[in-house]
Design a protein that fits this description.
The complex is a heterodimer. In chain A, 40% of the residues are buried. Chain A is flat and about 70 Å long. Chain A is mostly helical. Chain A has helices at 7-11, 13-48, 53-67, 71-81, 88-95, 99-125, 129-137, 142-172, 184-195, 198-226. The model of chain B has no long low-confidence stretch (mean pLDDT 93). Chain B has one domain: MetI-like fold, CATH 1.10.3720. In chain B, helix 3 (25-51) crosses helix 9 (154-167). Chain B is mainly α. Classes of the chains: A mainly alpha, B mainly alpha. At the A-B interface, helix 3, helix 4, helix 9 and helix 10 of A face helix 4, helix 5, helix 9, helix 10 and helix 11 of B.
Amino acid sequence: MAYSFDFGLVVSGEYGEWLRQGLLTTLHISAISIVGSLLLGTLVAVLRLSRITPLVWGSAAFTEFFRNTPLLVQIFFWYFGSYSVLPDFVNQWLYQRDFEFAAGVIALTVYTAAFIAEDIRSGVFAIPKTQLEASRATGLSFLQAMRYVILPQAFRIIIPPLISQFLNLVKNSSLVMAVGVMELTYMARQIEAYTFHGLEAFTVSTLMYLSISLVISFAVNMYNKRVLKIAPR
Amino acid sequence: MRWDVVANNLQYFLLGAWPNGELGGLAMTILLALGGIFGAFWLGLLVGLFRMSRSGLLRWPAFAYIEIIRGTPLLMVIFWFYFLAPVLLGHSLPGSYSALCALIVFTSAYIAEIVRAGVLSLPKGQMEAARSTGLTRGQAMRHVILPQALFNMIPSFVNQFVSLTKDTSLAFIIGVNELTKAATQVNNRTMNAPTEIFIAIALLYFVICYVLTAFSRRLEKKLVRYQARGR
């Protein structure tokens, strides 16, 4: 093997700093998108359950379309093509900021929201129907019943699938490198191009992703065992 | 709107430069997805069986393989294959081969978990009955457990295939001529219809993935009914 590993190069000095910055950007873009996708996903799920036909159809089309197209294509769409479908003042607002980052956040948020909406919906279906009927009978409106009775119970069940969606989001955030957001994968690729020591950079960044994943899945297992009392298989 | 740009390049989106040049576009996407699912099925079946083995020598490596692959972004796996190949083989591998290997390895970890879930979901009595008729554990697996488990897993496999089809778009990043690359090429050349081009591409992916998703949902319903009758 005509390749000498030099991990000192990528864990310290300038390139170490690049990877550290990349990791921070990955965590930053993931955190914003997690909050956004949770809010948007809940909204879409509630619309889907609302029994108002146009809203049901609209939210169903939303989930089906965004779940069945590749994230990379969606990122390119928001990056290259969104200016002609978004209102002008939104475009102006986006251009004044970090546009790559914004396009990445929008794409990750919308893509993940489609998956989260389905998870929330299946969580709501797991709640006995009588819960909704009983809360409607006490005089709560549909939205109030959702807000105070159904969703709090549903969220308790779907915390594990939600967290694995968040985990997917962190991994998916690597794709925003394609439009030039300087996150972890972009930095690793950049170090490869500058130094030809890509394998060290990929090792370090893979380990960073792995430790995020392992910590989160450990937390989910604990939650399953302690709170939901599901025995691990 | 400039939908004529899409119409003029439709053949390029579907087939690439073929028959006058290299095959690309949607055809390449489908080839990658089919090759990927074929390889990933066999590798995933093997890893899944190792994961359930009673020998720690097989079980622990399989466990590590599944957890490491599932904790790593696909793009990272693709880069690994793309940049490790010249070091290991001494010459660089064409992007499409690196991408195919990466897709197979990545998807196989998920297939392994599907296989494990399918086998564990069968009643325990199946294995016990098979063993008591004199079959070895391997024979019982091969002739009794797997035929039932794999049949029940078909919807999950179809869903995995949908994910894989979407994932082939990542091969673009190491320069494979598939649908997403065709879109960016046409976009860079024309510069006047990005919205239309990416909507058209998204629709092409959507048609394939949605048909498969709908198929898997129907199949799932049928299987549930079929199983309910059997009990």
